[in-house]
């Protein structure tokens, strides 16, 4: 992009660090913002008066504005108008409005910029937007809500839309008297405007970034708790049962109190509101004092939702509350520091979830969830460093990904183990205190941690945040010297690392586990080093998988570790992490897939949910990669899965009782689903029985923990009859969780006519944009579904592009979803060809990452097709006659 292009007003942008940012001639101090939404025309009228500190003599002011019609501008200094109706030019590309006037304003003065504008209450879930819900009588109603992060505050009102340009906000909303108006702060005054309207003025906020501003207008119900120092409320539209907010409400009260202690810093706002918004592009958003949520991520009906939904809500609520300090009070200075926000909130939500629900053992889950998510994406050539330069608005949305969230939090988990959790948290407290109401860079966090620990934190951590990727550590053994030799190399899923891509030497925290001890201090900092091990009989690297790396053992050692697992020498995290490593190493060619299969087979006596979960994930990954292979091999893999899972599934059963703890509920659900998908006849029969009773009107016949599995098992070979039953639940179930579970499952139906119905549903307007990935995702388990949805994307590209403008982030998800399931060379070429001549701005990462993922599968299959077949034969899952 050329910034000197003729239509760019000079001085409208500044390219510090190569970033497209605003010039620094003025600095916003305070916004007085008034907005009046119109629910008939879906527009809003706005006035903003921005107090500015002038830092240079100037006769132009540039600020961000996107799709807003600015009618009128006035610049004044100390009440005297300097310019009325000055020239306003808009650069659509950089989303900057520049106001030019002839009398210049002197450096050191305070100026006021008043803008009068009209905006559109759009239906794109960005800026100030409309969100709809249906009343029981079928009537569609609207609320107006906001989503500003990362760069859509400029879509709601003209503003200096950069995280470091913090200012105070005084918001006034004008609406019908029957409506509720909410913003970040509490209400200062309510006055009548005409007979039917009111103006609700909110108190002035503390210094904050524009991306955290929020306002909401609509008919809303709420519940409130006074269990915390300031009132907390959960709001929802009248079509929802507001009592379903009780779990989140109570958890928020406990969590805010917990965080005040953990951060040693009082929550600075006078209230905390949380609202379920019917249309919401992400899961939730941490607006200061007014957190917005997707309905399913905040409202819980314990009677009709399963344990995993409850856990997700707890995670989401705690994540957004953690941001109230980490993100809102202390904010990254620009978006390349996004990981500070998201990585930390992720780590913190796990930390507090573990404190409140120790029986959920969430840190075990972390190893198969965030850690694997991080390693998976970061094993692609098209990954990026945690601290990634982002220049333009359309690049920012794309880094809300597993690198910022999961690798970011994994880096923090690693350093917290290295320093000790208490020292780590003390450093965080100091950091919060030092930078409250300010902006930081990654180095500021490292400095606080170094101060408190006396350890060279920056030196160690910089390498992890500034470089892409992570290493695989190859272990060779020297029995004579009782030592192990370790060598690190960059790990790529495609297994084709070039020397120039393998130049970073990571400080690898080895976490060497021996019989009595875990060594948390030793690091591998060189390419290769030798380490003494007290007893080569038993050792394992990466204890609890606190380090960000994969370990490649010899096949012999891997077998011994399998034995050690059975002998109780390894923790749950060790077992799950070891399986994950083995799976990743097999799929990338560092080990043989037969080795993985043998390892998995040796875990048939495993007792823990998290380990089983990883075992089944890895079989799932293998089966997904082999999806376009011949049916005999695929059947053999299915038989293998059944042989592993059936006995255990039958043992723990699929009857649920109130006495089942949180993990057991999910364990039963996991094994039932897996056995059913592997066509265990008893499970399939049970699924059909439950489904038939359900279809006949007994809605309690299917337990919420296995609702999705039962639907999927039955739909797989189902007809229109079963499809219609599930579809009816999408339309008519009372809760959003039940509706969306049904929507996610429809794609399991393999009948071509039913595949078409699923795709038609995705195209139509009965599925909200926020949920469009759900019917599409359901098609991923069968070749016909995968092919049909790709054809659908190709033939409807223009309409889909229009429906999901790339700047909003959802198009990337849909592109990834519709392409990443492919496994063959021809499919790879097809995807490549389709996007070759398209403008992929706003979703180019998604395309690249999909292509990389397909490439990795193509090579995996080529490499290990015969190896897998031989193993399946040797182990009698495949008859010898084949080939
Ligand atoms: N700040 C994000 C919301 C967000 C996401 C804004 C993407 C803009 C683009 C929020 O704190 C968040 O991370 N939400 C998560 C939930 C969380 C439990 C990981 C989400 O939306 O999935
Ligand atoms: Zn977040």
Automatic annotation (TrEMBL):
Entry GO MF terms: metalloaminopeptidase activity; peptide binding; zinc ion binding
Alphabetical UniProt keywords: Aminopeptidase, Hydrolase, Metal-binding, Metalloprotease, Protease, Zinc
Statement: the UniProt record of this protein carries the keyword Repressor: no
GO cellular component, as recorded: cytoplasm; membrane
Catalytic-site annotation from UniProt: 320 (proton acceptor)
Entry EC number(s): 3.4.11.-
Residue ranges of every copy of the ERAP1-like C-terminal domain listed in the record: 538-856
Site feature (Transition state stabilizer) residues: 405
Start and end residues of each Peptidase M1 membrane alanine aminopeptidase domain: 247-464
UniProt GO BP: peptide catabolic process; proteolysis
InterPro entries the record matches: Aminopeptidase_N-like_N, Aminopeptidase_N-like_N_sf, ERAP1-like_C_dom, M1_APN-typ, Peptidase_M1, Peptidase_M1_aminopeptidases, Peptidase_M1_dom, Peptidase_M4/M1_CTD_sf
Domain Aminopeptidase N-like N-terminal: 27-212
Cofactor(s) this protein cannot do without: Zn(2+)
Gene3D superfamilies listed in its UniProt record: 1.25.50.20, 2.60.40.1910, Neutral Protease Domain 2 (1.10.390.10), tricorn interacting facor f3 domain (2.60.40.1730)
Cofactor note: Binds 1 zinc ion per subunit.
Binding site for Zn(2+): 319, 323, 342
Family: Belongs to the peptidase M1 family.
Name by which UniProt lists this protein: Aminopeptidase
Species this chain originates from: Aspergillus sclerotialis
């Amino acid at each position: 992009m050329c910034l000197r292009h003729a239509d760019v007003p000079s001085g409208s942008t500044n390219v510090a660090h190569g970033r497209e940012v605003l010039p620094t001639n003025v600095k916003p101090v305070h916004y007085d913002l008034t907005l009046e939404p119109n629910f008939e025309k879906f527009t809003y009228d706005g006035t903003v008066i921005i107090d500015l500190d002038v830092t240079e003599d100037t006769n132009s002011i540039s600020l961000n504005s996107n799709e807003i019609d600015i009618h009128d501008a006035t610049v004044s200094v100390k009440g005297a108008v300097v310019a009325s109706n000055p020239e306003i030019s808009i650069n659509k590309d950089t989303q900057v409005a520049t106001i030019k006037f002839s009398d210049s304003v002197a450096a050191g003065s305070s100026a006021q910029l008043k803008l009068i504008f009209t905006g559109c209450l759009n239906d794109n879930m960005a800026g100030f937007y409309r969100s709809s819900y249906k009343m029981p009588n079928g009537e569609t109603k609207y609320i107006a809500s906001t989503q500003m992060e990362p760069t859509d505050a400029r879509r709601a009102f003209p503003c200096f839309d950069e995280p470091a340009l913090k200012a105070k906000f005084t918001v006034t909303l004008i609406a019908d008297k029957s409506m509720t108006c909410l913003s970040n702060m509490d209400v200062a005054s309510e006055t009548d405007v005409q007979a039917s309207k009111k103006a609700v003025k909110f108190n002035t906020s503390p210094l904050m970034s524009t991306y955290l501003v929020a306002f909401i207008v609509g008919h809303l119900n709420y519940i409130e708790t006074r269990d915390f120092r300031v009132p907390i409320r959960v709001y929802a539209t009248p079509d929802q049962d507001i009592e379903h907010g009780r779990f989140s409400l109570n958890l928020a009260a406990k969590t805010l109190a917990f965080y005040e202690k953990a951060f040693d810093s009082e929550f600075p706002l006078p209230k905390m509101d949380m609202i379920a918004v019917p249309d919401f592009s992400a899961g939730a958003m941490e607006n200061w004092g007014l957190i917005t949520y997707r309905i399913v991520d905040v409202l819980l009906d314990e009677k009709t939702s399963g344990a995993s939904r409850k856990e997700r809500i707890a995670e989401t609520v705690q994540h957004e509350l953690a941001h109230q300090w980490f993100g809102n009070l202390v904010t990254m200075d620009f978006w390349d520091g996004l990981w500070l926000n998201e990585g930390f909130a992720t780590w913190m939500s796990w930390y507090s979830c573990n404190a409140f629900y120790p029986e959920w053992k969430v840190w075990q889950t972390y190893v198969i969830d965030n850690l694997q998510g991080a390693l998976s994406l970061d094993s692609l050539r098209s990954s990026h460093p945690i601290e990634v330069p982002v220049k333009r608005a359309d690049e920012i949305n794309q880094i809300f990904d597993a690198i910022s969230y999961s690798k970011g939090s994994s880096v923090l988990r690693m350093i917290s183990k290295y320093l000790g959790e208490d020292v780590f948290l003390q450093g965080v407290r100091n950091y919060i205190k030092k930078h409250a109401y300010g902006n930081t860079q990654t180095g500021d966090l490292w400095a606080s941690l170094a101060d408190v620990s006396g350890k060279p934190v920056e030196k160690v951590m910089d390498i992890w945040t500034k470089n892409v990727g992570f290493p695989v550590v190859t272990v060779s053994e020297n029995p004579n010297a009782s030592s192990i030799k370790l060598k690190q190399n960059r790990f790529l899923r495609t297994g084709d690392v070039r020397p120039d891509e393998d130049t970073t030497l990571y400080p690898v925290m080895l976490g060497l586990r021996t019989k009595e001890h875990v060594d948390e201090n030793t690091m591998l900092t060189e390419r290769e080093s030798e380490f003494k091990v007290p007893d080569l009989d038993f050792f394992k690297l990466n204890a609890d998988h606190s380090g960000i790396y994969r370990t490649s053992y010899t096949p012999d050692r891997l077998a011994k570790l399998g034995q050690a697992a059975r002998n109780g020498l390894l923790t749950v995290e060790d077992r799950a992490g070891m399986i994950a490593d083995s799976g990743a190493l097999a799929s990338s060619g560092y080990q043989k897939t037969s080795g993985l299969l043998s390892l998995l087979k040796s875990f048939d006596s495993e007792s823990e949910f998290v380990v089983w979960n990883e075992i089944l994930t890895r079989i799932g990954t293998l089966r997904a990669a082999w999806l376009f292979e011949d049916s005999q091999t695929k059947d053999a893999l299915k038989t293998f899965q059944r042989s592993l899972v059936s006995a255990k599934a039958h043992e723990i059963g699929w009857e649920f009782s109130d006495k089942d703890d949180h993990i057991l509920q999910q364990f039963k659900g996991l094994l039932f689903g897996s056995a059913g998908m592997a066509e265990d006849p008893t499970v399939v029969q049970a699924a059909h029985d439950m489904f038939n009773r359900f279809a006949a009107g007994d809605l309690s016949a299917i337990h919420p923990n296995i609702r999705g599995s039962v639907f999927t098992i039955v739909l797989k070979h189902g007809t229109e009859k079963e499809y219609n039953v599930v579809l009816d639940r999408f339309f008519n179930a009372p809760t959003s969780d039940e509706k969306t579970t049904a929507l996610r499952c429809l794609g399991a139906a393999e009948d071509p006519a039913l595949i078409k119905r699923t795709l038609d549903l995705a195209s139509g307007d009965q599925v909200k944009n926020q949920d469009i990935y759900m019917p599409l995702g359901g098609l991923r388990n069968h070749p016909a579904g995968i092919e049909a949805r790709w054809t659908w994307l190709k033939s409807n590209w223009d309409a889909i592009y229009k429906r999901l403008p790339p700047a909003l982030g959802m198009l990337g998800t849909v592109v990834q979803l519709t392409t990443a399931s492919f496994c063959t060379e021809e499919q790879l070429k097809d995807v490549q060809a389709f996007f070759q001549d398209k403008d992929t701005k706003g979703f180019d990462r998604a395309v690249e990452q999909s292509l990389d993922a397909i490439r990795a599968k193509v090579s995996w299959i080529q490499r290990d097709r015969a190896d897998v077949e031989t193993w399946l034969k040797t182990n009698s899952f495949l008859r010898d006659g084949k080939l």
